[in-house]
Amino acid sequence: MSTGRIYLLPLDQLAFAQMDTDGKEQLLHLSFATHEIMVRGNTLRRIETALHRLELSFITPLPAKYHSLVADGQPRIREIVVTEIKQASDQSQLN
Fold first, then answer.
1. Is the pTM of this model over 0.90?
2. Is the dihedral of CA 51, 10, 82, 91 positive or negative?
């Protein structure tokens, strides 16, 4: 996710959320009707809970130089990857 870019996704179209642990980091996979979002970082369960409660307003990656300033138990996002889901009709037009 590039600096300065903002994605607004309809929370009512969240299909599912899945949390995986990769060593010391966690990977939060969010599947929406039109996009897939992968959030990599630590203590992401709090973000997942806020998302399900519709309390989440904004997330952004935190530069590594600021990680030491975040209290233990608070989420730290290292990376966000947003991928658009291509619709079946879009794919058939390409063939």
1. no
2. positive
